[in-house]
Structure formats: structure tokens, C-alpha cells
Amino acid sequence: MFNKFKKTDTSSTYDYLVVGLGNPGAKYETTRHNAGFLCITKLEDNLGFKVKKLKFHSLIGDTRIGNKKILVMKPQTMMNNSGVAVSECAKFYKIPPENIIVIFDDISLDPGKLRIKRKGSAGGHNGIKSIIAHLGTENFPRIKLGVGKKPHPDYDLADWVLGNFPKSDIPLVRNAIDDACNALEYIVKGDIDGAMSKFNS
Description:
This protein is of the alpha/beta class. It is built from six helices and seven strands. Strands 2-3-4-1-5-7-6 form a seven-stranded mixed β-sheet, sandwiched between helices. Helix 1 crosses helix 5, helix 2 packs parallel to helix 3 and helix 5 runs antiparallel to helix 6. The longest helix has 19 residues. The protein is globular and about 45 Å long. The two termini are about 20 Å apart. About 40% of the residues are buried.
């Protein structure tokens, strides 16, 4: 679905900043909270670029989707401080909030489900809470990847989101990540309504 791309120079101006949220380190790699990182990895595979340069407290890489220049970021600040990395990068490249697309896990959605929103509150997600605080606005688009709710109300939330996906959920999550990558193309081409209509669960 993606068009062929040409790598861009990181000194140039970017049309969009795409941020996948997660926690750095091997022990978090396949956890529910790292769904955003996993989506960025799939995007790298699809488009043939690498997110590996360390800048803005993040691993970054750049690519094109259609004729849009995209900077892609995996903050290395730990989830709860994601806004430090995002705001620093957005300020440096003068990328407006409406062109910052954040991909992250959502416990209110079942595994395999996707929800795209133009803006909104943090909904209890600490990574989004940090980004809102540092950008000073909720007006940035986001792609939520369902990871499933806690098995019972007393289950510790941190234990749940920092746990690994069970084998039965992995194919569902992979499908949702594929959809998220495809939805991203709609969004950067200015058709977020089309993305919501096609991919929202």
C-alpha cells in the first residue's frame, strides 16, 4: 500500500512527526505498553528505513510516505516522560501539534482493535499525559492499538501493561499493527476521516 520512498536529510523540514510510544530496553520489548514501538518496527520493515539515530532523547529515523517527509521517533525517556522527547523535537523542527501522530497501547480496546482520533484527553495513559503537558495541547492525532483490559479490577495496572502478550493475542495484535501502518498513510495524506472510517473498530 505504501509508495516507494526516498530517504530525506534530517536537516530538512519535516511534514509530520510519527511517534511510537514504549519503554526502552530488552525486558520491555514485547510488552503491551510497547505496542507503539512494535508498530514503528513494522513501519521500518514496510518502508526499508531504520530508527537508530540517537537525538532528542529518542531513536529517530526518516522516510517518505507519498510526497510527505516523515520523521519517526521512539522516545527513550521511559513512557511517563515521553513528552520531553516529543516537545523538544517538535520545537526544533517547528512541527505543529496537528502534524504529530502518536501510536500507543490502549487497554480499553480488545487486542486486534484499532482506534484513530484527531485529538483527545490522555484517557489515563501516562505517555499521552506527558505529551499533552509538554506540548500544552490535546490537539494531536493518535492511533490507539488495543491490548485488552485487565482480567479483573484489582489487577495491578502496571503489571498488566508491562506484561507480555499471550500467544493467542499475538496474531490479533500483528493485524492491528498492519492496519495502523496503513492508516498512517491516509493520515499523512490529509484524510484522517478516511482512516477513521476504514480502520476504527
